[in-house]
Amino acid sequence: MPLLRTSRLCVLFAALSLFLWTGVTRGETPDRFPPKVVLSDTLLAAHLDLDEIDASALEQILSQVAAGQKLSSTAGPLWKVLRDAGADHVFVSVHGRALLQGAACVRIECEDTAEVSSFLDAMFQPGNFPFEFAVLRVEGAVIVCPASLRDIYSEDAQAVPDPQRPEFDRGLAAMSQFAHQAVLSLPDDIRQEVIAMWPENLGENDQTGISPRSWMASARSVQIGWDLPPQAAFEIRVQAADADAAAVNEAQWENLLKLVPAQMPRPEITVDDATVVVKADREKLQNLIESMLRPARQNARRMQTVNNLKQLALGMHNFHETYKSFPGRHTVDEQGRPLLSWRVALLPFVDQIELYRSFKLDEPWDSEHNRRLIEKMPSVFKVMSDEAPNDELPAGHSRIRLPALAGSMWHGDGPPRTIRDVTDGTSNTIMIGTAPQSAAVPWTKPDAWQLDGEQLNAQFFGDQEQAIVGFADGSVRLLSPTIEAAVLKALLTMAGREVIPQDAF
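The structure corresponding to this sequence follows.
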């Protein structure tokens, strides 16, 4: 077989491995691969259990890691079609004879094969992919394969001889304790070609001692099993020809693991006769994944809060456009007694008109009727980090507040402010911001966030690593507690005539 084919094998295996590591959890493993998943020239066979995949959790993880990214326009509908059709097990295989025609074959076991095949027919129309694929319906399954393999997989195709590749079923059984499995095993002709092609070492400057050729020559087949969050784990088992070959392969794994960064958990390597086992510690792996995801989650929550403040700032300006002023800190009755917070007044301007109409606007926030609406707080008033474990606020509480400092937009009980009152400039005047958790209040309560100029930073930031603030021009920025108190005070006042350098915050 040409060397080009084996080089494509390496690339394809890497790509498929990445695909298989996409958010799967523990599931039940079949006893063996279905007919024709493994052929005489099969290089890779894998199994996934769709019953154990939580699509909403996948999308949530994706949005945390990639700042709001969603599942692709194809993946979402495909997932729905598969689940509606009762799809459960998926088998993926790569055969040497089709490496130059797309390589991968996918068998989807499902109840409604017509629904799945109809969707996939549209998806795999000629011209949509570099290679031509066939979508075939067989009893209890739909198969997608390179068009060149149609005669093998069609329902009226003749039975194929026993491929004499027992290592694939053995590998499936060996990894049955994991949710998903993959087995890599090269036919002898391809294996010998790869051995000849791969280098003896990685170059003169390599300090690891890794020998790709020795690794391949010492391995007969590779079995992989894994679980991902919430119970992350993985294990690799390399089947060698004998104990001597296993020792060579173990040495290569030891060299390879020198590349693992110090902060990452190092897998354990053991040898059992002719089998090399590379296994990750579950607890350490889970801690690593959590540490990797934590900054991304925090950033995603922060960006959602930024978007909330942008929406509230826009609502403030739309209110001003309608009533020629910003809303007051609260509504009042005929005697001037506070009734409801500014958040209630802003509801029609943040797409919450029906909730606004649910209030009795002439009653206080804690009247028998209005009190029942506290639990209906819209998400736009949430600081999303408060959704994290151990940071939850009581239901209906918000810490998005209007800072009331002498000279600020919200100080005193005078008439509502207008744009003209902000003589320091709307881009230099804080209008709204996140308060410490200790300053959270029921979102409908007309409670002022009073700040003292003498203890301004401590009151404004409290336990916050950063405060998210919306300026009167509608922009949103992050402020650090290290900001000078004089600069913070200047930003909070609307007509103090201070000169604030742009690099001061």
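The chain has two domains: 3-164, 297-504.
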